[in-house]
Structure formats: C-alpha cells, structure tokens
Amino acid sequence: MTKVIRTNCPRDCYDGCGIVVEQPSAPGKPMRVLGDPDHPVSRGRLCTKCAVAYNGVWQDETMRLQQPMRRTGAKGAGEFEPISWETALTEIAAQMQQTIKRRGARSILHTHYSGTLSMLAYMFPNRFFTHLGASEVDPDSICNAAGHTAWHLLFGNSGMGFDPRTAKDSSCILVWGANPSHTAPHAHEHWLTESPAAVVVVDPLRTKTALAADLHLQPRPGTDAALAFALLHALRELDAFDSVFIERYLEGAQEVSEDIGRCTPEWGEQQTGVPAADIRRAAVLYSAGPALLWCGQGLQRQPTGGNVMRAVGLLPAFTGNVGKPGAGFYYLNDTPAFAGMNLGKLAGAKLPRHAAAGEAPASVGHMALAERLAAPDEFEVFVAWNTNPVASAADQNALRAALMRDDLFTVVIDCFETDTVRYADIVLPAASFLEFSDLTYSYFHLLLGAQSKVREPMGSALPNQEIFRRLARAMNFDEPALFERDAQLIQELLDAGANGMTLAELQQRGSIYISDEPVQLWQALEFATPSGRIEVASQAAVKLGLPRTPQPWVDAPSGPGSLRLLTPASSWRMNDSYGNDPHLQAQAGPATVTLHPEDAAAIGVSAGDRVRLENSTGALELIALVDELAPVGVAVSYKGRWPGAEPSGANVNALHTPRVADMAGSTAVHGVEVRVLPCD
Ligand SMILES: Nc1nc2c(c(=O)[nH]1)N[C@H]1C(S)=C(S)[C@@H](COP(=O)(O)OP(=O)(O)OC[C@H]3O[C@@H](n4cnc5c(=O)[nH]c(N)nc54)[C@H](O)[C@@H]3O)O[C@H]1N2
Ligand SMILES: Nc1nc2c(c(=O)[nH]1)N[C@H]1C(S)=C(S)[C@@H](COP(=O)(O)OP(=O)(O)OC[C@H]3O[C@@H](n4cnc5c(=O)[nH]c(N)nc54)[C@H](O)[C@@H]3O)O[C@H]1N2
Ligand SMILES: [Mo]
Fold it and tell me: Which whole-number Å values give the CA distances from 587 to 351, 584, 680, in the listed order?
C-alpha cells in the first residue's frame, strides 16, 4: 500500500491548505503532493499553482539549489562554484566580523519576508540578526504596513479580525480590495458561496470574485476613502448607525459627522465612478443585519492607502458590527497569538545585542532599499533570505545597480536560483517545506497545522533555522537562544497553543482549529488604543503627522496620456514563487497588460500588439490584451514573473516607483502611473 503522510502548505496565502503526500510507489518515482480530503478548507484539492509546482519544480533536482556556492563571475551573471557548508559559513562569518570591527553590525543589512510561513523557518533566523545587531529591511513595507498602522490607530490592533466560521450568522460579506478568486481560491470557491450572506465586492477590477458577487462596486483606484464616506452617508440615511455602540465605544465620532453629511452618494459617484444607486444598494445590503468586512492587502497599496483603511474601518464602527455573531472586520488574523503561541519570542524579539555590535541598528523601508543600498558608506553586507527582492521589490533597475556594488558582500538563501541569487557572493541552499518538520497556520482561518518531513533535503540543503544556528556557531556566539533545537521549540509552541499535543499527534490529524466552536473575536470590546475606544479621531495619528480623522480623499485622476497600473496577484503564481515552473510558465503565457478598449483605441493598439509601458522609474514591453477588466484609465499586469525568465529581463517592478504610502513607509505600488505606447 502507498504510504501517505499529512502535511500543510506554508505559503503566504489566506487558505493554508492541508496536504497529503503519497510516497513514491517505486524507487526513482516522484512522490505525489495532493490535497487532504479531511482538511476543512482545501477539502481534497490544492489550487492549480501549488498542485503543479509541488509536483513540478519543487521536486526537480535540476532546478533546486543543492549546495552552497561562491560567485566566480560578475555579479548578476549567475556564475558560481560549489563549496562546502563549512567554507561558506566561515567566509560569511569572516566578512561579518570584519564589518563589525570597521563600522559596527549596523552595516550588515538583512531582508526577509514570507517565502515560507512555517513558524520556525519564518521566525527563528531573526534571533541571529537581533543578537548580531544587524539592520533590517522593514518586511511589511513591501506588502501591508500602511494597513497595519491604520487599523492600529483605529482599533488598536490590525491582527485580529473575524473567524470565517462566523459567516453562518452574517447577512452580508463586504469584500473590499481583496481578490480571493486569485489569492484565497478555496475561500472564493467554498466560503463565499456557502455562506448565506449577500456578497458585495469593491474592486476596480472585474475579478472572478466580483463577477460572482451580488453586487460589484467598481471605483477608480485610490478613491475608496470617498466611497466609504458616501456609504456612511447612505447608512446614516437608512438609520443604520448604532447610536448606543457609537456613544459607548467610539472616540471622536462627532468629528466626522459633517464630512459624512456632505459626502452624499451623488458626490461619491462623481469622486469614485461608482453609481450613487449602487452605493445606496450596498448600504442596504450592509445594513440588513450582522455584516462582515474583509479589507484586502491590495486595498492599501495606494498613495493614501492608510487613510483608505481608516475610512473603510469606520463602516463596522458606526454600524456596531463589532464583537457579535456574524459581525466583524478583518485584515489579518494572528492565529498563533490567539492560540497563545508567542512568535515574537520565537523570533527573539527581546534578545540582547552581542557586546561588539556597536551602534543601534537601522530599519530601512522597502521603498528606500535601492537608494540606501547604493550608498557606499552605509551597508557592507547584505543578506536576503526567504524573499526574492530583485523580482518583488520596488525600483528594480536601481536595486540591481545597487547589488552590483563591488564593496557589498551579498548572501542569498533560497531553494531556487532566483534573480536575487544571481547577485550573491555566497549562495546557501534552503530545504523546502517537504524536507523538514515545522508548524503552520492560516492568517484567515483559525487553523494550526503540522508541517511534516516527507523526504530528506535535496543535496545538502538545510532549513533556515539550522542555517542560522550554524552561522551563529561560526560567529562564535554563545547566546543559548541561538542554538535551541527544533523539537524543543516546536513542543514549546504546542504546549502553549495546542494543549501540549505532540508534533506526531498533530501530524496524524493534519491540522486543528484553535477551538471547536467558532470564535467570537472582539467580543470583549476592548480596544488597545490610547483611549481604549475605537479612535475615529486619533491624537496618535496627529503625532505621526496624519489628519486627526480619516478624510474623504481621492487620488487625482491620471494626467493626460497616463494610466494607473495595477499589478495584483496572479492565479498562476505565489508572489514570484513558481515563476520558474515550466508548466505554470506555459499556463500563464507571455507577460501581458490589459487595457480598456477606449484606452487601447486612443493609442491605436489592438489585442496582441506589443506595447511599451514607461514612467520615470523604468520601462517594460508587454503584449496588450484589450478587455473591460478595469475601468477606463487603468491598466492591469499581474505580478509574479521572474525578470530573468522574461525576454526583456525585467518584470512589472521595473515600473514600481518607490513612492511611499501615507503610513509606515509602505509601498504605493497600485498608485504607479505609466504611459503606454505602441511599439512601432
Ligand atoms: N508589482 C508588485 N510587486 C509586489 C506586489 C504587488 O502586488 N505588485 N506584492 C508585494 C507583496 S504583497 C509581497 S508579500 C512581496 C513578496 O515578495 P517576496 O518575499 O520576494 O516573495 P517571493 O517572490 O515569493 O519570494 C519568496 C522566496 O522565498 C523562497 N523560499 C521559499 N521557501 C523558502 C525557505 O524555506 N527558505 C528560504 N530561504 N527561502 C524560501 C522562494 O523560493 C522565493 O524565491 O512582493 C511584493 N511585490
Ligand atoms: N495566487 C496568489 N495568491 C496570493 C499571492 C499571490 O501572489 N498569488 N500573494 C499572497 C500575498 S503576499 C498577499 S499580501 C495576499 C494579497 O491578496 P489580496 O488581499 O487579495 O490583495 P491583491 O491581490 O494584492 O489585491 C486585491 C485586489 O485589490 C484591488 N485593488 C487595487 N487597488 C485598489 C483600490 O484602490 N481600491 C480597491 N477597492 N481595490 C484595489 C486589486 O484590483 C485586486 O483585485 O495574497 C496572497 N495570496
Ligand atoms: Mo504580501
């Protein structure tokens, strides 16, 4: 009989699917990675991209990095020679020690994100860098930092939403700037369709989720704050404000009253392009009973994305859709924390810096990364792990130029030879999630899961956590927390969050909910803001140089000849992961940009023509598609392609202007403007 092992998908995705792995039926045969029929979210199926990649490139020995390597050619050329782990770690440690002597550990910069979210591999390496005293690229500033700051100001927490299981009690689910049809395919397929609630989607794009909804509001990008105020106006007209809740739990509610009064749905239509009648319909659906609000991460990648999140968050606040069955708001769920697991401790947040570290480390926002890295006198060592910035970060050309610096010693840790790896002086091979045991979680569903080792690592690849234990040893560090073993760390987490279950027991079950019954988050109605209330008006915001209350702002429409470029998630890619899988490359086809028929006609372009996108940051040639996916004035090209795999040698982030959003130095990637021209 084929041996079957349960594990879970650790990708940065809302779904967090359960997996079963069938061991090879005969020697030399591949194993099969399939959906776990008993998993409540994936129900026996994986999404196409993971099903293909996990049975494709992730098991392909010719594609995986198998051993440490040292650069032999020019930076960026991808010419390397194999070296031993010992040599690699000794050379890295020697470079770090020299840098520390010369200018302090602050001159070592590391960047990391969510290549894997399995708890140890995701968190443990931070212990090394904290103790080292290295500078860090603020991870969330490439993804969702503006939204976190906004909801901290408003609610005192951005990592506590609703339990998706409570949707059974909802009459409306408002999905605002999220596209589960791509980014949470199982939630799109099952959760949204099976809930009794009416679904309202707010997205400039006709996504599959929008097309399946009861109502789709299609605003111009960057106009959502105005739309939120117009909705508040319509809700107040309907007498849907909860005056008892407002009185008791809102701080400064009266300070937005006048704004709500002047932001009529008719005004909203002018500002956003959404018909006033649809704004009123949405208000009727949202006010019918308990309602859920899901704010996506794409929503806040705007020049005033923080303000957008604060404004949209007023809807549950004014209608009292907080802390009762079927009601709530969601940005992300910190599921491990709800269970009592302390990932901050796992990441060594409070570890002391070692004695020789020198000056306090710097935090560098992603939007400043290319510029700061280019300066010769700030950083001497750059370590990228669990992330592929040459594909995913802003200002691609400038970042590449910075990585060419001869006096920058670069270390990259990945499972594959990414574009970023090609700039490394030393490359270290990471083991994949199939090759070591760990714990997983979903940031939507309140599920914890086991990651199971189903095979030996390819070549001499190692899990992130083991790489940093060994590097700590090469550095002669003696802080015991840097050397704690996986088994002990996992058991500590399970003791805190799963009643002392063992890893083996969790592996048998696959995954567990943090409680059998749906959890009513926010039931205590305690808000960790300075006033202890939902801060409609916020002095903390003023201290950050922001308005006291959310504003009904809209971004100015694009100038003549200019289009807004949206580059959201593709269904064929997991960020840029899988950009090297040949089957997924074939499925996704060549890189395209979708233009509205009116915009295409204005520049004389037809479907299939080559067009050039350009702005002050860069240029990119793509194949035009012509479709009413987006409103007039908005172009769409999905993220997730490897620059090196493109004929142009670049992807959409060559156009990603490193402009910061209004909060947290976060990306405003959906605010990028481009000119589009036909190529001859
Ligand atoms: N234009 C545009 N750009 C964007 C976005 C956008 O919407 N538009 N979205 C942004 C967002 S939301 C995000 S989160 C970022 C994501 O950007 P990145 O963090 O760069 O994500 P990936 O490109 O998937 O790179 C993750 C890398 O981790 C590697 N990896 C996987 N498992 C492991 C492991 O166990 N160990 C190690 N060391 N490596 C591993 C993978 O092979 C992969 O190369 O991109 C951002 N970039
Ligand atoms: N298949 C797949 N799944 C993924 C990822 C992936 O790359 N591929 N990435 C993962 C990661 S790291 C993240 S952060 C999440 C992100 O997942 P989501 O939260 O769904 O975010 P995005 O896909 O970036 O954008 C969602 C929607 O926001 C819309 N949007 C853009 N600008 C505006 C605006 O101004 N107003 C409104 N209302 N909407 C706007 C876009 O059109 C898009 O449809 O997905 C995760 N899941
Ligand atoms: Mo993200």
Answer: 46, 5, 28
Predicted confidence band at 507 (pLDDT cuts at 50, 70, 90)?
very high
Q: Which residues surround ligand 3, an ion (CB under 5 A)?
A: 143
Q: Please tell me the number of the ligand nearest to residue 666's CA.
A: 1
* Ligand 2 centroid distance, CA of 175 (Å): 11
* Residue 459 falls in which region: left (phi positive, over 0), alpha (psi -120 to 50) or beta: left
User: Is residue 636 in contact with ligand 1, taking CB distance under 6 Å?
Assistant: no
| Distance spanning both ends of the chain, measured CA to CA | 61
Q: Could you give the angle at the alpha carbon of 389 between the alpha carbons of 202 and 152, nearest 5°? A: 45
Once rounded to an integer, what is the mean pLDDT over residues 429-440? 98
Q: What is the pLDDT of residues 147-199, one digit of tens each?
A: 999 999 999 999 999 999 999 999 999 999 999 999 999 999 999 999 999 99
Arithmetic mean of pLDDT over the chain: 97
Q: Cα–Cα distance between 240 and 614 in angstroms, integer?
A: 46
The token pair at 458 is 């390819």
Nearest residue by C-alpha to atom 41 in ligand 1: 115
Distances (CA, A) of 144 to 37, 87, 439, 541, 661: 32, 38, 23, 18, 10
* CA atoms within 13 A of residue 677's CA, in its CB half-sphere: 8
Please state, for a pLDDT cut of 90, what percent of the chain lies above it.
Answer: 98
In angstroms, the CA 75 to CA 427 distance is: 12
Whether 523 has a pLDDT exceeding 80, the answer reads yes
pTM beyond 0.90, yes or no:
yes
Question: Considering only CA atoms, which of 1, 8, 52, 3 is closest in space to residue 23?
Answer: 3
> Are the beta carbons of 224 and 204 closer than 8 angstroms?
no
pLDDT of residue 318 exceeding 90, the answer is yes
Nearest CA to ligand 1 atom 7: 568
Q: What residues contact residue 222 under an 8 Å CB cut-off, 6+ apart?
A: 302, 303, 304, 308, 554, 555, 564, 670, 671
Give 680's pLDDT tier (boundaries 50, 70, 90): confident
From 575, 578, 657, mutation site for ligand 1 pocket: most ligand atoms within 8 A of C-beta: 575
Q: Is the CB of 418 under 6 A from ligand 1?
A: yes
C-alpha 605 – ligand 1 centre gap (Å): 33
Sheet holding 409-414, edge to edge: 80-82, 69-71, 426-429, 409-414, 381-385, 108-112, 135-137, 363-364
